[in-house]
Write a structure and sequence with these properties.
The complex is a heterotrimer of chains A (293), B (325) and C (333). Chain A is mainly α and 293 residues long. Chain A has 11 helices and no strands. In chain A, helix 2 crosses helix 4 and helix 6 crosses helix 7. The N terminus of chain A is likely disordered. Helix content of chain B is 77%, strand content 0%. Chain B contains 13 helices and no strands. The C terminus of chain B is likely disordered. With 333 residues, chain C is α/β, with parallel strands linked by helices. Chain C has a domain of 71 residues. Chain C is built from 10 helices and 12 strands. Chain C is globular, with a radius of gyration of 21 Å. Classes of the chains: A mainly alpha (293), B mainly alpha (325), C alpha/beta (333). The interface between B and C is medium-sized, with 31 and 39 residues.
Chain lengths: 293, 325, 333
């Protein structure tokens, strides 16, 4: 990995644009990118993209087949499926982005800290990481939900916590590699203060791999949230989550298969798109990221 | 066994114990965070005030935190995971009743995934750039990305409902093992599909990396057959990064198994935890989660130890001690 | 009076004529070998000397035909004892590797598979060379080979894994492996470059001792002229993908005719000269992507003329087996 002595914010914009173009040169990258844009668009502009109010009940019209009025038909309570699907994107993105943002911040901070701590404390941090990693995320989420009850906030916090070791370890190893870089030594000798070294030199250099890791984690979080909502333990109804939609459809599978298929496809395509995009992004920047342990 | 290997084993064991210890502390903390009166919660809706008070004294819930922690640990050590508040059975017995189902499902899925995935990965690596390779690449990503329970539902839809080839839900009532087997097919395949893709890609990537190494070039330079190089040499080298990443993914597998058990209405740890959560049955949740964590950690330990079986460098305590010139 | 038929030297084991190798890179087509012609004598040791980028390692790879995937062109002729190697298909070529041609690589640290013992490496190579050989027999031969390369305690080393051996020892194992298959041609690609100076000296001694026992030809590639002078019978000087001078080593060293060869010799550090500046050849090796229309050495040559910059020099015989590729041959002393 090229280690450059950059101040924060130098030609990042050009680098981002160039990377995006590189991603789109591959078929998988381009497809992924298109899907990501689509999903983000739905998430951001849900009220305008959706044709109906996702919570509007119309029980007389339940299980309606797809038609001009309801593009994808209605669910067991007569709510428009298309609108619920679009709003599901919003929920998925909200949970995913907030959980990852929290995990990224906390994990990076802990990781950098661990790199500078004396050996004992560092080992402690690493053991904490190991303990958290020893819980499969879904299971930890289940345990937490059992205690605190289902809610969006809990899901976000739990998922964030399970991802912290992931970012923490990478941040730590990147910082360790960086620590021995000559330019950092030079800064220290020149008497640069600790926060300055971290924010202006360490952070910009390790941020790249971390951001890519984050983008590769988005589909993971979407899946966990969907899984929890499927179990009824995620976001509170009547909020439309893809997982919840699948559950609703699953319950009434005997009546119609449309809701299940529609929401599953939405979930599947979204996770696929983000996965393809994340991998193309990684390959465009540095294929070795994500293989470090 | 060399002392280096023993030392390695020792340190791994200590780490494992520490992790389990930490996990127990975490679980205990979680359960002590349960809002509301602990006895009322533990007893459920049948709690009367006197009964609650007796309960509190008996279970030592009024004791200070560290004593409760100690009781928790000693209980777990003796295999006592608490009492199910609904039925009064011991949590341990409940768990041991259902755990075989989960283990069989997970194990079969891994086996299926490995048996299918490794040859596919080798094929993709040795036929790089072919049509099959591209198809495989796309399909494997698709199955990895799409969540297991979604695949499960689709399989259910297609094979059990539309085509009616296989029985749908639950385990065999008749006890007939053929029926049992048929009911296992869909869940196992659903769980395995995501993994086949994952393993195939992993093997492909590792093999391609290994094939570019200098020691493979040496084998080629001496005219060893491609077959020998691929299956004896390169495959063994490729196993190491494969196992590493497989080990890291076991957690996801367990999570997936939970959901799939629920989709197919099969008994197992997943359903147990799920049911217990709905009933606010904390001892069961706590006990089951603990068991899952322990299994997970032990599996990781086994994965780690299998490295040293494959990679002699770890057995002998890493890089070049060479003797003489 | 009848003409005495000229005494002909035995035919060379390998005749390489006009070998061209091109590869596609990000910046264009790289000309790695630009028309290389040379002979490898039977039972003789040929030293190939040149800077990095001269193509000497690629030459060895061509002889084995183990080339990287980005090669776009391999033309010319490699006549090995009558057989045209470049005309063989891959399956046929594979039968030559590890049987009639063997190679020792530059980096002993990565040349052996870390997950397999030395015994496994040697036995597999032997089994391929002599199908049907029994394991006990193969192990015995492997053991003998280790002894012959100066490894004391061969049984211990046979059971060892590569990471348990030092660099020098691993290189000895590689040499043993090469000798085990009894090749007609042994290619040694900078076998001592990655080793410490003391170990290097030991390996060179080993090679000198072995040449008496080994009846095949050896190609010894190095950037170290002194080493080559010590060990080899014939010398081939390469620059920028071409052979600039070749001939018997004593002859070439005593009467170097090509400006590059002369410059190289001057660069060699002499023991008895102290306090002077180290000589170097000004300029850089030419970019392999540049087209081949002139003498490759011209940009750095003190004697370059306009003709040199516009015409490709062809090898000219100046003595018994001594060939030089220089347009100004007669004019430079």
């Amino acid at each position: 990995m090229a280690v450059l002595a950059r101040g924060a914010g130098t030609d990042m914009g050009a680098a981002v644009w160039g990377t995006l173009r590189k991603v789109c040169t591959t078929l998988t990258g381009a497809v992924g990118f298109v899907i990501v844009v689509l999903v983000m668009g739905c998430a951001l502009f849900a009220p305008w993209v959706a044709t109906h109010n996702p919570d509007a009940l119309d029980v007389m019209n339940r299980f309606a087949a797809p038609s001009g009025a309801h593009w994808l038909g209605t669910d067991h309570l007569g709510r428009d499926l298309f609108s619920r699907m679009v709003h599901g994107a919003r929920v998925a993105m909200q949970v995913a982005l907030s959980a990852i943002a929290i995990a990224l911040t906390a994990g990076t901070a802990l990781g950098i800290l661990a790199a500078y701590l004396p050996a004992r404390s560092e080992r402690f941090v690493l053991i904490v990481f190991d303990v958290i990693s020893s819980f499969p995320s879904l299971v930890l989420a289940l345990a937490a939900v059992a205690v605190f009850g289902p809610s969006t906030g809990i899901v976000v916090v739990i998922v964030a916590v399970t991802l912290i070791p992931h970012f923490g370890r990478v941040a730590r190893s990147q910082t360790l590699t960086l620590k021995s870089a000559p330019f950092l030594e030079a800064e220290r000798i020149l008497g640069a203060s600790w926060p300055r070294v971290v924010f202006f030199h360490v952070l910009p250099n390790i941020l790249g791999p971390l951001v890519i890791l984050a983008s590769m984690d988005i589909p993971v979080v979407i899946t966990i949230e969907a899984g929890l909502s499927f179990l009824g333990l995620g976001v509170r109804p009547p909020l439309a989550s893809w997982g919840g939609l699948i559950q609703d459809g699953y319950q009434y599978l005997s009546q119609t298969w449309v809701p299940v298929v529609v929401s599953s496809v939405a979930l599947g395509v979204a996770t696929l798109g983000f996965t393809l995009f994340g991998e193309a992004l990684r390959d465009a920047v540095d294929p070795r990221i994500g293989r470090e342990h | 066994m060399h002392t280096d290997a023993l030392r390695y084993l020792g340190s791994r064991l200590i780490t494992t114990v520490l992790i389990i210890f930490g996990a127990m502390v975490l679980l205990f903390t979680l359960s002590s965070l349960v809002p509301g009166d602990p006895a009322a919660i533990l007893l459920g809706p049948q709690a009367t005030p006197e009964y609650s008070k007796r309960m509190i004294v008996e279970m030592g819930l009024d004791q200070p935190l560290h004593i409760r922690l100690w009781r928790f640990f000693s209980n777990v050590a003796t295999g006592n995971l608490g009492i199910d508040i609904v039925s009064g059975r011991s949590v341990t017995s409940m768990i041991s009743a259902v755990i075989p189902y989960t283990i069989i499902l997970t194990f079969s899925a891994i086996l299926l995934a490995v048996i299918t995935g490794i040859p596919l990965g080798i094929y993709a690596a040795t036929h790089r750039g072919s049509v099959m390779d591209s198809i495989l690449a796309f399909v494997s990503v698709a199955f990895i990305a799409v969540p297991g329970f979604v695949i499960a539902i689709f399989l259910l839809l297609i094979f059990a409902i539309w085509l009616d080839w296989l029985p749908v839900l639950g385990t065999s009532r008749s006890g007939d093992w053929l029926d049992e087997l048929k009911r296992m097919i869909l869940p196992t395949v659903a769980l395995a599909l995501g993994w086949v893709g994952f393993i195939a890609r992993l093997v492909r990537t590792s093999m391609l990396e290994v094939m570019g190494e200098n020691y493979i070039r040496t084998s080629r330079a001496y005219g060893l057959s491609e077959r020998l190089i691929t299956y004896k040499y390169a495959l063994k080298n490729a196993c190491i990064p494969t196992i590493t990443i497989l080990g890291l993914g076991i957690g996801r597998l367990l999570g997936g198994a939970v959901l799939i058990e629920i989709v197919f209405a099969r008994p197992g740890l997943g359903r147990l935890i799920y049911g217990a959560i709905s009933e606010r049955n904390y001892p069961v949740v706590q006990g089951a989660v603990l068991v899952v964590v322990v299994v997970f950690v032990l599996v990781n330990l086994i994965v780690d130890l299998s490295y040293s079986a494959i990679d002699p460098r770890i057995r002998h305590g890493s890089a070049g001690q060479g003797g003489g010139h | 009076m009848a003409d005495l038929a000229p005494v002909t030297a035995p035919t060379p084991l390998v005749r390489i004529r006009d070998l061209r190798l091109e590869a596609s890179t990000q910046r264009g087509t790289a000309h790695i070998l630009r028309g290389v012609s040379l002979d490898i004598g039977r039972g003789r040791i040929l030293g190939v000397v040149g800077e990095s980028g001269s193509g000497k390692s690629s030459l060895a790879s061509c002889l084995l035909r183990l080339l990287p995937g980005n090669i776009t062109r391999l033309d010319g002729s490699i006549a090995f004892d009558g057989t045209e190697l470049l005309g063989l298909d891959e399956a046929a070529m594979a039968t030559w590797r590890g049987a009639r041609i063997a190679m020792i690589f530059q980096d002993p640290m990565t040349a052996l598979n870390p997950l397999f013992t030395v015994a496994t490496h040697l036995v597999d190579v032997l089994k391929r060379r002599h199908p049907g050989i029994g394991r006990a027999d193969a192990l015995a031969r492997a053991r003998e080979a280790l002894v012959s390369v100066g490894i004391a305690d061969p049984d211990l080393r046979l059971a060892a894994y590569p990471h348990q051996l030092s660099g020098g020892m691993r290189q000895r194992v590689m040499i043993a492996m090469a000798l085990l298959v009894q090749p007609d041609l042994l290619l040694a690609d900078e076998p001592t470059t990655a080793l410490d100076a003391t170990v290097e000296a030991q390996i060179v001694d080993l090679l000198e001792g072995l040449r008496r026992k080994f009846s095949g030809s050896i190609v010894f590639i190095s950037h170290h002229l002194g080493l080559v002078a010590q060990l080899c019978d014939d010398l081939c000087v390469m620059y920028g993908g071409t052979v600039v001078e070749t001939g018997p080593v004593a002859e070439v060293l005593a009467r170097p005719r090509h400006p590059y060869t002369r410059a190289l010799l001057e660069c060699e550090i002499e023991d008895d000269v102290q306090g002077g500046r180290l000589k170097s050849i000004p300029g850089e090796v030419q970019d392999p992507v540049a087209p081949h229309v002139a003498c490759v050495f011209a940009p750095r040559c003190a004697h370059a003329s306009d003709r040199c910059r516009g015409e490709v020099p062809l090898p000219v015989e100046v003595g018994d087996g001594h060939r030089v590729a220089c347009l100004r041959l007669g004019e430079i002393g």
